[in-house]
Amino acid sequence: MNALGLSMIVKMGCICTRESLNINGVKYVVKERLGEGGFSTVDLIENKGTKRKYALKRILCHSVEDQKTAMEEIAYCRKLKHPNIIELVDSTFKGSADIVVNATSEAYLVLPYFRRGTLHDYLTLKSFNRNHLGVKEVVRLFADICQAVKYLHDFTPEAIAHRDLKVGNVCLTESMSPVLMDLGSCAPAKVQVCGAQDAQKLQDLAAERCSMTYRAPELFHVESYCVIDQRTDIWSLGCVLFALCYFKSPYDIVYEKGDSVNLAVISGTIHFPEDTPFSQDVHDLISFMLKVNPSERPFIDSVIERTRDLQNRIEVVV
């Protein structure tokens, strides 16, 4: 190889090699970066033997507390078994987080790879031409997402809240079935808040883990003495259904205008487009979930019942 060729490879990084990983005895090669967030990255990886592709979620842990949080996500992935909730293929830790400065570990979660991407990706493509989903598809997708949420809320021995439901956390299978992912925000559904310190801790946690434009009002300003329950997810579901109809959460629109999401959520402000292909029944279902007072908000069974009624009416019309 001449000097010029060697120089080009050095400058570009060796294009002929890819990162290899050994996870519990299975060898993978990293193909490309799929995405990254504040706490993790996701890579497309390929099993060297079977050539099957997976998604690898890497969570960098800077402390023992970070490592505990990652272990909790792995635990939720392992115990939740539902066709509309993502499965965990394998997992491991590399390194060991400690209180010593610069001591870090990394959690590796091997997950199914969804070639179609997320519901957010799908809606973004549709939005370019203002090509709304048909009402039948909207309600079908929403009904399946509700089944995943019902499984979480009915889980025994303790109900689970997802706490970060949004279209970006729903993958789509080849047959266009929704699969709920990112279980890192999952927690026991019912939280008893006793005092200002508890309230601030939960509020800070929500700000960190719950996407602002899908976050329930009671998580923006947590009262000093209250009970938070799984109806935080119902608010988020209302935002998801709005996004299925109009491509974004109603509060994404507020955020993009530069207005206060906090104030809009607390006031329950929501504007439906005047020029819409969707019936009042669909808007009523969204409004049914977006009740500012959580005690007035339905539980998941009532949402599913109304969704089924809507499906039946659609079938009759069609």
From TrEMBL:
Cellular-component GO terms for this entry: Golgi apparatus
Gene3D superfamilies, per database record: Transferase(Phosphotransferase) domain 1 (1.10.510.10)
Reactions that this protein is recorded to catalyse: L-threonyl-[protein] + ATP = O-phospho-L-threonyl-[protein] + ADP + H(+); L-seryl-[protein] + ATP = O-phospho-L-seryl-[protein] + ADP + H(+)
Name of the molecule in the record: non-specific serine/threonine protein kinase
EC number in record: 2.7.11.1
Keywords linked to the UniProt accession: ATP-binding, Kinase, Nucleotide-binding, Serine/threonine-protein kinase, Transferase
Signal peptide limits: none
Pfam families to which the protein is assigned, alphabetical: Pkinase
Enzyme class: transferase
PROSITE patterns named in the record: PROTEIN_KINASE_DOM, PROTEIN_KINASE_ST
GO molecular function, a single term: protein serine/threonine kinase activity
Domain Protein kinase: 28-314
